[in-house]
Design goal:
By secondary structure, the protein is α+β, with helices and mostly antiparallel strands. It is built from four helices and five strands. It has one domain (about 5-120): Aspartate Aminotransferase, domain 1 (Alpha-Beta Complex), CATH 3.90.1150.200. InterPro entries: YdhG-like.
Length: about 120
Amino acid sequence: MANKNPEVDEYLKKKNHPLEAEIQRVRDIILNTHPDIEETIKWSSPTFMYKGNMASYFMNAKKHVSLMFHKGALINDTTGLLQGDGKEARTAKFGSMEDIENHKKDLESVVLAWIKMRDDS
């Protein structure tokens, strides 16, 4: 995958998270959604970027994969995937590989909504 960052590979290997396979699956889905999505380590966490910071993993969560969309309140999420009622951030949580696969289209939809919003602004 062209847009995978070796820095993130190394970070995830060192972190040895109990849900590493699930984290990698979410990562693959997001990076495969659009070729211009990039990833880096920011705020001590893998972060996805497209014309700004899109989303970061909350690596302290051990029972589920937690992905915070920094400006998630601005995303037109018609799927119901994003949770929270904060001023800006929204979170997507996945409890298992099955949960990730069941919500794959929802995650892609949220990522594409972010891209459209950024491209239109």
